[in-house]
């Protein structure tokens, strides 16, 4: 069975972020990361 492209993920390399994102950023989508100053966006 061919994997659904919507289910494909690209790992960010940040273990906790990948865990929250269920394995990484979804392929074929635009993802915006936003947060308050000091929340770890730059990492």
Give a short overview.
By secondary structure, this protein is low in regular secondary structure. Helix content is 14%, strand content 9%. It has one helix spanning 15-20; strands at 9-10, 25-26.
Name some characteristics of this structure.
little secondary structure, globular, 2 strands, 43 residues, single chain, 1 helix, two-stranded antiparallel sheet
Description:
It is a single chain. This protein is mostly loops. The chain has a domain of 26 residues. 14% of the residues lie in helices and 9% in strands. It contains one helix and two strands. A two-stranded antiparallel ribbon has the order 1-2.
* Class computed from helices, strands and strand pairing: little secondary structure
> Rough shape?
globular
| Helix content estimate | 10-25%
How is the main sheet built? 2 strands, antiparallel
Please, what is the average pLDDT? 86
User: Helical element count?
Assistant: 1
Pattern of helices and strands? EHE
Strand content: 5-15%
Report how far apart the termini are: 36 Å
Low-confidence stretches: none
Kindly state the number of beta strands.
2
Main β-sheet, spatial strand arrangement:
1-2
Radius of gyration: 12 Å
Q: Quaternary status of these chains?
A: single chain
Produce the secondary structure layout.
Elements: E1 9-10, H1 15-20, E2 25-26
Antiparallel strand pairs: 1-2
């Amino acid at each position: 069975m061919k994997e659904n492209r919507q289910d494909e993920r690209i790992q960010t390399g940040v273990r906790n972020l990948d865990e929250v994102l269920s394995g990484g950023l979804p392929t074929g989508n635009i993802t915006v990361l936003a947060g308050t100053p000091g929340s770890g966006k730059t990492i």
